[in-house]
Amino acid sequence: MEVRVAESAGFCFGVERAVSLVEKLLAEGRKPLYTYGPIIHNEQVVGELEERGVHVLHDLTELEEAEPGTVVIRSHGVSRAEQQKMEDLGFEVEDATCPFVKKIHRMAQEAEEQGKTLFIAGDPTHPEVQAIVGWCRQKPYVIEEKEDIPVLDPGIPLKILSQTTFNQNKFKKLVEIIRERYYNADVVNTICLATQKRQQEAAELSTQADAMIVIGSIRSSNTKKLVQICEAYCAKTYFVQTLADLKQQAFHPVRFVGITAGASTPKNIIEEVQNFVRSEF
Ligand code: F3S
Prior knowledge:
281 residues; alpha/beta
């Protein structure tokens, strides 16, 4: 049986950077040390960090009640108000917002200064999107489906940006529809290259493979998109968080297995799954 792992499977640059920052602060002995939200969507990694003294703060209430210390902003970023609150409460802020996400914050602010109405293609419940919205003075329109496109003056100047992990094809389709209704739209595809490559590889691999295994957290937006892509091309797509999940599934050996993983999946989990599939079937 052939087993192929997508080149882009696993930690992306932004996640690697955020986890390394936490590791560095732990090594420096910073205490108390917090992350604002889990540093990555991986329960194992977050659990291990917790055992080593990294506390996860889930919201502003928990932040207000915590003893001031060092707080790490994860790669998704936070809103301007949240960052301000951290500083006002006396926390030392270590910012691991991915530079690609920071760039979107800047572009959103510039668009506002230029008097443009902002459309963000993304999931309104996702922390990255909420943080982008939180850097705007006027609430932008978040568009996840075509039904979310507002009816405004067709000539208004628009700026269209996207969540870094948005589905590439869906973004293209939404932009086409927006352009049919608005003739003054400035579009910047801000889906990050790591995401584009990962989605492209998942599509290519799943068209060839007889079975696909997607490894990642149920809470990870980019992993869920990989599952959707793989399911579109490969009927036998398995979504697992760890090797234990795969062992519980009725996974039948086939001729060719493809493996990919979300941006928060550590290398060791990918290797465990890969070794299991190679050795057991
Ligand atoms: Fe950054 Fe792209 Fe990862 S935006 S956090 S490198 S998916």
